[in-house]
Amino acid sequence: MAIRLLRLIAFLIAALAFAVPHAAAQTPDIPALVDALGQGSFPEREAAINALVATGDERVPPILQALADGNLYLRKSDAKVVLAAKAGSGFALTNPLDGADLGPAAKAEIDKIKVNNGLRGKIRTAIGQMTLLSPDRTTRLSAAQTILKNADPAMRDLLDKALAAETDPQIKSVMELARAVIVLKTDTTIEDKRAAITTIISHGDRDAQTVLSSALADAPDELKPLIADGLATIARNLQLWDIAQNLVYGTSLASVLLLAAIGLAITFGVMGVINMAHGEMVMLGAYVTFVVQNLIATYAPGLAEYAMAISIPSAFLFTALVGVGIERGVIRWLYGRPLETLLATWGISLILQQAVRSIFGANNRLVAPPSWMTGAFELGGLTITWNRLWIVVFAIIVFAALQLVLNRTPLGLQMRAVTQNRRMASAMGIRTPFVDAMTFGLGSGVAGLAGVALSQIDNVSPNLGQGYIIDSFMVVVFGGVGNLWGTLIGAVSLGMANKFLEPYAGAVLAKIIILVLIILFIQRRPRGLFALKGRAVEQ
Amino acid sequence: MTRLPRIAAGLALGAAMTMGAFAPVFAQDTIKVGVLHSLSGTMAISETTLKDTMLFLIAEQNKKGGLLGKQLEPVVVDPASDWPLFAEKARELIAVDKVAAVFGCWTSSSRKSVLPVFKELNSILFYPVQYEGEESEKNVIYTGAAPNQQAIPAVDYLMSEEGGAVKRWVLEATDYVYPRTTNKILEQYLKDKGVPPEDIKINYTPFGFSDWQTEVAAIKEFGSAGKKTGVVSTINGDANVPFYKELANQGIKAEDIPVVAFSVGEEELAGMDTTNLVGHLAAWNYFQSVDTPENTAFIDSWHGFIANDKRTTNDPMEAAYLGFNLWVAAVEKAGTTDTDAVLKAIVGLSYPNLTGGTATVLPNHHLTKPVLIGEVQADGQFDIVSQTEPVPGDAWSDVLPEDKGIEADWTDPLTGCGHLDTATKTCGAAP
Amino acid sequence: MTDATDKFKTMLYLNGVSVSFDGFKALNNLSIIVHPNEMLAIIGPNGAGKTTMMDIITGKTRPDDGEVFFDGKVDLTRLDEAAIANLGIGRKFQKPTVFEGQTVWDNLELALKKPRGVFSTLGYVAANDDIARINEILETIRLSARKGDLAAGLSHGQKQWLEIGMLLAQDPKLLLVDEPVAGMTDSETVETATLLKDIAKTRSVVVVEHDMSFVRELGTRVSCLAEGSVLAEGTLDQVSANPVVIERYLGR
Amino acid sequence: MITQLVLRALDRRAVWVVSALLLVALAIPFANLVLPEGHPLHLPNYAVPLFGKYLTYAMLALALDLVWGYCGILSLGHAAFFALGGYAMGMYLMRQIGARGVYANPVLPDFMVFLNYKELPWFWNGFDQFWFAALMIVLVPAALAFVFGFLAFRSRVTGVYLSIITQAMTYALLLAFFRNDLGFGGNNGLTDFKDILGFNVQATTTRAALFAASAIALAFAVLVCTAIVNSKLGKVMIAIRDAESRTRFLGYRVDNIKLFAFVVSAVIAGIAGALYVPQVGIINPGEFDPGNSIEVVIWTAVGGRGTIIGPIIGGLLVNAGKSVFTGLWPDYWLYALGGLFVFVTLFMPKGIVGSLRSLFSRRKPPRQDNSEPLETGAKDIPIIAEPQPGAAE
């Protein structure tokens, strides 16, 4: 039934929208059709949507979009469908057709018009049909993709028309694929179908695979071998991409591990403090991001897109200060007793966790991603998500900056001097207590930076740090204590190994294997990958 | 001083191996209620809210004049997400504090850990979380959902035309008992419905798993076989946020591959940005967005109590609410807090659900509850897209061949049986 | 070293030993021979490779190249520290390294030449001979009065003595002694020299020392090391007259 | 040799500790079982397994102290041995349930029926026999310690590196035991035990007996540890702790000695775990959590490492404190616990016992007389050695 209706609509659209300019169409009672959206069950609502789509009116797509987004409400008093936006404790109502202000309403006066996944899909298709010729490139692309997903044979003429007019190669390729899929579904000659299959195979991506595998069952027998061959080709192709995809995943995991571990590479690797509170520094960084975002949302909503950028220095400074506090308060009494720093910092980590729990509650906190960190893009057969890409970039920047600080600044020089020979450095007039505090502050600050990044992919909860502390130690120890490059290599090796093992062994076993490998590796190289050699080490 | 006996107990324990004088004197002017939820450690994230809920419910009841003419007194302890500590704290609540009933636990492990204690000391545990079933104990009232009150209706919904007519299934889960059992039941159920084995993919990940890239990509790949694919997620607590973040970023839309979850409620959504998750589903017996006068009143007074109108409500809170009120009703009916009398009184009692209708305590110590399917909205709430009539909770899943014909009946707590083979009329479990 | 030297009659035989750390050549084609019952004094500037040489002999460091033989037949490069120590090579460190957490007596008992296995030490009962021997050593190193005190409480010089005592207790065939008189008074230095000379009557001794008067006191063959190889060899007078040695080590 | 060892074990302090433990082993059951309720000294039922649990924790701390306090091996994975011993005991207890499980399967434990096991996995065979389980309680932790220690000590992994890989070990075990596929009940672990050696685990008399067994086991562990640390081997261990490479140059096979201490320690930890399980009624993978192992280190540090009595006191005090404060201040007890750890490291680096000792030793005149070592058994050799600051690295 639905399909027949759709065909009808498509026909209508084709007829109305292209053959006849819509000014000439009889004006259906659009307001009444819109109000019909507010009534009845999901199937009835579907019918109402179809009726609206059938009008082909250009005001319809935004209304449908509003429906899909959950912004359409039913005003209980007069059963009128309105657009509602949150305003204070209630809602501000507008007319969905002309945007006229309809005044405020309390929550109890209006009912949200619900949609489910099925309806949402229908709406998307409908909008797709109605916007396939939109002048806006993005709209057109998503319209084309929608049509590809549904591949309704009724769309064929519309698609042909759109194809003829299309100039953008990406959209064109999607449309061609959609057309080929439709051809496969319709009763045409074997030759036409063969051509369509070839087109699909030449696309060679996951979508093509989906299309072909669903077509395989219903295909005429003479085409089956062609499809099967095509599927095999695509599978081979995809297999290669899979390896590349694993590399991408590995890089991403490596960047996360690097960020989590690099602060530890300073507090533990350089200073020799077995800093069990490192994870909590990461966690504090994530909470700073949360606080900054909320402050900005409250006091300077205009800056919302820059909240992330503002969080970075804030998190660094805050956690660095906490780090300096810990160093001055506790760690400085424990130099030369590295294993005892473990006990003290473990105590500190318990206190920090509970403090955050007392202040912010035990629940997860929401750190909303900025728009430039959401979604993904395709690169060949790869899917790369923006947030992970930015985290990789961020990790590289942090690493490079840290190398600069350690190797090119006076503070870095003093840090290296103090950690190599405290007494000598002190004799040369370096204020060792100051340098200690700064070094620990730097390590903690970098951990805070990691927290900013992790707030984008993980829970912002008091337990955040716990999940990374062991991995961080593994990375630092694997890479070799006291060497940032070692930490980098450690993070990359562990990240890659994990991601390449995961598809075969599963997530749990992969992790166990990695741990066992680390244990065995440490037997071979008891001081990690980049161990310092020579006499000095033993002292 | 109500805390005195605890301090006395503390001192006695603190003296550890010395044999201290130990004679707590209990003033019998209050009825004590134990609250056994983790306030620290990994489970604090979920359980802290339930502790607050219990304090809220008890305060409300005291406003109404208490119970049997006495005020209720909450005794809160922190079992710190440590399962053996749960057993120890349960013992302490029952033996030292002499609480009349305990409301608590979240994970199956913690419940399994305290079970022997409740049996031994004959007290009552109200367990407010959806769980894997396959259990019915004299001393436990299960106010959360059994698998047939959550998992099966959710799958039915996805299979229906309205839910998208899903043909291919990914069961994505955290590796512990609840998902294992749920998946076992679902796998059997799907096979019974004619789903071929190659259209079912089951994947387990560890607790607190945070790097979901590979798994989400695998779901995408599995979903590209040309059949409508759906995901049934029994991913637990902490791992959900990174899972959904990855899902949103890799662009898995609910219209294409809907994900239905059994452990994701309003509380969990509060920690994520849901704009790209709109349409993914959850199956519960309660949603905050349910529009009934009871629920509105409940939410209002909850916000008043917690002094924060942003705090969400969720299904385990409703389960705690039902459990507490049913207990109150049972105590009033029995006229005493004595365990056996209360257990006898409670079977058959009803209390209004927040979602409309009533919850009745069944002889198997589970409740009848309606099943609601909700779709995630951009504001972090759920839109209810399907609601069933109240479903009686089934301790032993009828789907599993080995559980066919097994029932539990605690109508008489003294002679009841948790694993009654209705065919042979024998009770499998030794008491 | 001349090729004519018969390796089989030596106590210690180093031939062409090289080792480098991260590109720095600590030893460069070093060859040294010590005969049975001979004392050899080694002098040289800091960084000449003296301690590294000892590390190689005692198995702490593996050479990149070259031969190291003990008693003419045992290849030391294949053995670890414990095996080498049990062969009869004792070492005293530059920085006195005694077990500070234990008593003087225990330090000597630990060093005493006895089976070193796990179960033999677990079941060890001090025999009368052992006690007598420890008391004897205590006399020699003048620590009898402090045998019950923790080694941490000893003065620097006393620690040096204790470590020498531990060497004695080990009863080694070859002693490697690194700067034994640092921190000692003049009279203690003289006594140490006497003691070492005494020891050298029955065993081989290699002494590394900066203190020229002490080396003179020893009156023995001297090797001067610099930059990882032997610069000059002979009596102290010969060596200190060597113009290269003066240039590189003793200073003008 | 044996007599010597026994004599050595019986030094004055050890005798004192052992007698105290034996007294407790009698007194607690007496106070619980014999004294009537209402008697001022009557001990309530719930306290007996609780105290028993503390004793097993104390034993675990003692085990750790043998390797850390005396041999300088900071193991951050000792709870793994404890848990393995516990699992071995748990498997025995599971098999004892027999057909009394919910599913009334005479062979398979409930969780296996639940997870569709058709037959018992091979490694569960034999655990229906107590002697076999007892053997495994000793052998499994010992085997793991042997393999791990053999590899690690031979390669001279020391200090922080060793600590971190012990942590990796327990973490890997944690993940492995969480896997339901491994056949140990996954996250829920093993629970709902019925009988031990034919006695109901929940009966007060059984509990009292288990308590007494824990006290006696701890006393025995004290004797073993004392015998080791008072022997020459003990001195070598301390030597290794203080100056590992120096000990090598004296000709001691440091790796063998460490391995010995590590294995003995693992066995003690395993036995402690085995006694722990029937008293708390559950064993699950949570016991492998790296955080647990760190806590053990902290008990030892609080009590005083490098002493025999210290870790026992630390284990008892910290855990008793935890019991009290999780009830008394459920929202704030972590501050107290965290604060305690910081305080102890900063102000009592030698722990309670070490601090008390330095307090007393200041008053005593220095010992001059070191009489004949032959009479080691009767002589006052300190169990308490002074740990050296910074010596562990």
From TrEMBL, chain A:
<dbReference type="InterPro" id="IPR052157">
    <property type="entry name" value="BCAA_transport_permease"/>
</dbReference>
<dbReference type="GO" id="GO:0005886">
    <property type="term" value="C:plasma membrane"/>
</dbReference>
<keyword id="KW-1133">Transmembrane helix</keyword>
<dbReference type="Pfam" id="PF02653">
    <property type="entry name" value="BPD_transp_2"/>
</dbReference>
<dbReference type="GO" id="GO:0022857">
    <property type="term" value="F:transmembrane transporter activity"/>
</dbReference>
<feature type="transmembrane region" description="Helical">
    <location>
        <begin position="338"/>
        <end position="356"/>
    </location>
</feature>
<dbReference type="GO" id="GO:0006865">
    <property type="term" value="P:amino acid transport"/>
</dbReference>
<keyword id="KW-1003">Cell membrane</keyword>
<dbReference type="InterPro" id="IPR001851">
    <property type="entry name" value="ABC_transp_permease"/>
</dbReference>
<feature type="transmembrane region" description="Helical">
    <location>
        <begin position="389"/>
        <end position="406"/>
    </location>
</feature>
<keyword id="KW-0732">Signal</keyword>
<keyword id="KW-0472">Membrane</keyword>
<feature type="signal peptide">
    <location>
        <begin position="1"/>
        <end position="19"/>
    </location>
</feature>
<feature type="transmembrane region" description="Helical">
    <location>
        <begin position="281"/>
        <end position="300"/>
    </location>
</feature>
<keyword id="KW-0812">Transmembrane</keyword>
TrEMBL record, chain C:
<dbReference type="InterPro" id="IPR027417">
    <property type="entry name" value="P-loop_NTPase"/>
</dbReference>
<dbReference type="GO" id="GO:0016887">
    <property type="term" value="F:ATP hydrolysis activity"/>
</dbReference>
<keyword id="KW-0813">Transport</keyword>
<dbReference type="Pfam" id="PF00005">
    <property type="entry name" value="ABC_tran"/>
</dbReference>
<dbReference type="GO" id="GO:0005886">
    <property type="term" value="C:plasma membrane"/>
</dbReference>
<feature type="domain" description="ABC transporter">
    <location>
        <begin position="12"/>
        <end position="252"/>
    </location>
</feature>
<dbReference type="InterPro" id="IPR003593">
    <property type="entry name" value="AAA+_ATPase"/>
</dbReference>
<protein>
    <submittedName>
        <fullName>Urea ABC transporter ATP-binding protein UrtD</fullName>
    </submittedName>
</protein>
<dbReference type="GO" id="GO:0005524">
    <property type="term" value="F:ATP binding"/>
</dbReference>
<dbReference type="InterPro" id="IPR017781">
    <property type="entry name" value="ABC_transptr_urea_ATP-bd_UrtD"/>
</dbReference>
<dbReference type="InterPro" id="IPR051120">
    <property type="entry name" value="ABC_AA/LPS_Transport"/>
</dbReference>
<keyword id="KW-0067">ATP-binding</keyword>
<keyword id="KW-0547">Nucleotide-binding</keyword>
<dbReference type="InterPro" id="IPR003439">
    <property type="entry name" value="ABC_transporter-like_ATP-bd"/>
</dbReference>
Automatic annotation (TrEMBL), chain D:
<feature type="transmembrane region" description="Helical">
    <location>
        <begin position="129"/>
        <end position="153"/>
    </location>
</feature>
<feature type="transmembrane region" description="Helical">
    <location>
        <begin position="257"/>
        <end position="277"/>
    </location>
</feature>
<feature type="transmembrane region" description="Helical">
    <location>
        <begin position="160"/>
        <end position="178"/>
    </location>
</feature>
<feature type="region of interest" description="Disordered">
    <location>
        <begin position="363"/>
        <end position="393"/>
    </location>
</feature>
<keyword id="KW-0812">Transmembrane</keyword>
<feature type="transmembrane region" description="Helical">
    <location>
        <begin position="97"/>
        <end position="117"/>
    </location>
</feature>
<dbReference type="InterPro" id="IPR036259">
    <property type="entry name" value="MFS_trans_sf"/>
</dbReference>
<keyword id="KW-1133">Transmembrane helix</keyword>
<dbReference type="Pfam" id="PF02653">
    <property type="entry name" value="BPD_transp_2"/>
</dbReference>
<dbReference type="GO" id="GO:0015658">
    <property type="term" value="F:branched-chain amino acid transmembrane transporter activity"/>
</dbReference>
<feature type="transmembrane region" description="Helical">
    <location>
        <begin position="14"/>
        <end position="35"/>
    </location>
</feature>
<feature type="transmembrane region" description="Helical">
    <location>
        <begin position="208"/>
        <end position="229"/>
    </location>
</feature>
<protein>
    <submittedName>
        <fullName>Urea ABC transporter permease subunit UrtC</fullName>
    </submittedName>
</protein>
<feature type="transmembrane region" description="Helical">
    <location>
        <begin position="55"/>
        <end position="85"/>
    </location>
</feature>
<feature type="transmembrane region" description="Helical">
    <location>
        <begin position="332"/>
        <end position="353"/>
    </location>
</feature>
